[in-house]
Amino acid sequence: MTQKQKHHYLVGIRRRSNPDDDDDTVQQGPFQDCPARLPSSVLALQHPNAFALSPCRQDTRMRYPAMKFGGQITYSRTAVEVEKAAMEIIKTVKAKKSELGQNTVGFDIEWKPTFKRGVPPGKVAVLQICGDTSCCHVMHIIHSGIPRSLQLLLESSSILKVGVGIANDAVKFFKDYNVSIKAVEDLSYLANQKLCGDTQNWGLASLTEKLICKQLLKPNKIRLGNWETKYLSKEQLQYAATDAFASWYLYEVLRSLPDVENLEKVTAANQSDEQATEESQAASLK
Fold first, then answer.
1. Taking a C-beta distance cutoff of 8 angstroms, is the pair 197, 262 a contact?
2. Where is the composition biased (Basic residues) (predicted)?
């Protein structure tokens, strides 16, 4: 591999879809009275070689298959490469906004942890963005810095960035790079609006299991590894891309569900209609 190729390369990973997974209904396990279907936006953007999501019926006794991004991973680490990647994302999002009404990307960051008391964690080293099933961008910003186009992307109020704990990520990013990430939405908060049940502090892994019965693997060797390394490994790239992809995908699933409050109103209205019908039938028999 030449030096230039090391600076910018693509990691293409493909996984065959399960031919038996032809039902796009997502069931909520214990919340089966809140059925949902995967939104058409997800199905329309489904990559031909991306994995299929089967109906989710939770079973705590079984081990779910791993969720793994199956599209192309674009890795950039120089200022020129990151600038080009950010411009590509902006262009793609604008096209989808015009064609499908979408302007959402999954967002996540990684940094090198510290294990010594009193020593602060490292700066944000990696930023990953994913907006469909075909391609995710992993930017090694500890080496590139924040080029102009990336700053415009992050500060854009018209491009929604989604993730779990994304507000905290935005705070850290501002402290590290003095760039304000605008238009963010936390999936944990959204999940509590959409799922029937008690309010929870959802993590990305637990939400993945709840919605689509997939495991989001978080091996400590990678999660707590050195994200400031000169070049990211294929395992690090896969981990980063899958997290960003999961954020985008789960947002698409969640936004297709009715709010719990609205669902309760519909249920109450249906019960009222049923009661009125029963009373009317009883009166006609007298």
1. no
2. 1-16
Q: Half-sphere exposure (CA, 13 Å, Cβ side) for 254?
A: 27
pTM for the whole structure: 0.74
- Which pLDDT does position 203 carry in this prediction? 95
Read out DSSP for the chain?
Answer: --HHHHHEEEEE---PPPTT----EE--GGGTTS-EE--HHHHHT--TTSPPPPP----TTSPPPBP---SEEEEE-SHHHHHHHHHHHHHHHHHHHHHHS--EEEEEEEE----STTPPPPPEEEEEEE-SSSEEEEE-HHHH---HHHHHHHH-SSSEEEETTHHHHHHHHHHHH-----SEEEHHHHHHHHSSSS-----HHHHHHHHH--B----HHHHTS-TTSSS--HHHHHHHHHHHHHHHHHHHHHHTSPPHHHHHHHHHHHHHHHHHHHHHHHHHT-
Distances (CA, A) of 206 to 89, 164, 166, 210, 222: 28, 11, 16, 6, 19
pLDDT of residue 260: 72
Cα four-point dihedral sign 174, 126, 185, 201: negative
> pLDDT digit string (tens) for 71-101?
999 999 999 999 999 999 999 999 988 777 7
pLDDT above 90: residue 262: no
Phi-psi category of 197—alpha, beta or left, where left has phi over 0 and alpha has psi -120 to 50? left
| 181 compared with 14, residue with greater pLDDT | 181
Pairwise CA distance, residues 248 & 79, whole Å: 25
Q: Mean pLDDT, to the nearest integer, of 127-141?
A: 97
